[in-house]
Amino acid sequence: MKYVVLIYSNPTTWEEMPAAERDRALGVHFKLIKELTESGELLRVDGLNDPMATKTIRARGGVPVVTDGPFGEAKEFLAGVWAIDVESLDRALEIAAPVAEYDTVEVRSLMDLSGMEM
Amino acid sequence: MTEASIEDLLRELSPQVLAALTRRFGSFDAAEDALQEALLAAATQWPDQGVPDNPRGWLITVASRRLTDQLRTDLARARREAAVAALLPPIELIAPAADEDLPSEADDTLTLLFLCCHPALSAASQVALTLRAVGGLTTAQIAQAFFVPEATMAQRISRAKQSIKSAGARFDMPPDAERAERLRVVLHVLYLIFNEGYTASSGSELQRQDLTAEAIRIARDLRRLLPEDGEVAGLLALMLLTDARRPARTTPDGSLVPLAEQDRGLWQRDSIDEGVALISETLARARLGPYQLQAAIAAVHDEAARAEDTDWREIVALYELLNGLAPNPMVTLNRAVAVAMVEGPRAGLDLLATLDEDERMAGHHRLDAVRAHLLEMAGDRDGARDSYRRAARRTTSVPERRYLERRADRLSGDQASGERAARERAAGDR
Description:
The structure holds 2 protein chains of 2 kinds.
Chain A: E1 2-9, H1 11-16, H2 19-39, E2 42-47, E3 55-58, E4 65-68, E5 77-85, H3 89-96, E6 104-109
Antiparallel strand pairs in A: 1-5, 1-6, 2-5, 3-4
Chain B: H1 3-25, H2 28-49, H3 55-77, H4 81-85, H5 91-94, H6 105-116, H7 123-134, H8 139-145, H9 150-166, H10 176-198, H11 206-225, H12 230-243, H13 246-249, H14 269-285, H15 290-303, H16 312-325, H17 329-343, H18 345-353, H19 365-377, H20 381-394, H21 398-410, H22 415-429
């Protein structure tokens, strides 16, 4: 089953962290990515740039309006997206847990184009 | 020989060659890599230069040469080349003569299947390795069929081969005591491969439908090797009887058509005939098993000329047998539909209610979808609509969601929009 692991992060948390702790926490991510690559469970990994560089666009009534910065008042922003293909939801959650040490992580299943007639 | 028939030949030979190499060199993973290179060489050279007189011997020779080179390289790396190279037999001795007394191809294919479906591997790895080693598909083809990057699939296959190695699995038939359980795994892997192809819903996924053909091909091989086994025959019959309906199960735009509404004229008659003959013959002589019962149920559906001719009493009886033999919530779900057709929707809904506390079914869209269908039969439009909508939100399948939303729309309280849609459909038909 295919899932995306969406990592929501508060940039301040990471900025204020002691460098050694940041290295350790990121090390956990890198180690996990390596393991998932080797097990054939990882489809892709993407990191997202700082929310400062975000543009938000809305085109209500056909008129596009572009604003700087993410919409909403959230303190946590999407920082990383991992796509995985695993045996079960439990396995997906097991993968997500170590990533959720400082961040909030969503595990979402992906839609696919196969289907059973009912 | 055309390229297509060369491809067929290579796929037929590849498990035999792989088995011979593994037997000779002892290392399944190295043999598998060498075979891939030999297949590539054959696929590029044979169309121009013609197929050699002994294609199997040719492949074994080329792959053996590659394996010998590899062994030499490995040894060189260990700085022992000079001392050990002398011990390696020359290539001429490794390459077999044309009619060497290899073990029978039959035993080899079976041994390979058991190895690829080794219990130390995850289901995904068993599937991938079986398709590559027994099916002769390339990593790229398998990756495409499962919508994963080629690198991911390559890694999965290589991990699977490592696991086989570290589990200490040898290229031997499993001991008799383990045989039945190991065969069960093999059948399950073939069924997974079949379903992966069968549930494909649109033209853009044509390559996935090859998986259906591949699963049937391997199941046919398996049946030839184990003609006495009822479940092997049952699985093959189930695949044939299910696959027969494939042309009718989707519309050209990929929408799903439920069994009751399928154009039965599109069903593949020859697959049905073969499946029915096979399951009838098997039920008459073999020990009953779950695949045989599922095939028997598929046969009852396939033999009804119209949906309303379906012998639901027979289907209920078969599901009850299946429930006794291999009870699981999916069986109960399907049994509820059959019971509803015989005794009315309320009886089906009562049976369905027994699944509400089953955590294996918690939040499963099929439970909501079946409940919606039975509520609709019972005339509870609101309840049915809510259940269809819940099922639509819970499925991870795009075509299932579309189908379920349409069913819900049809029951929508908004009569005007329903009538408008009907008018538009009628206009579209003209």
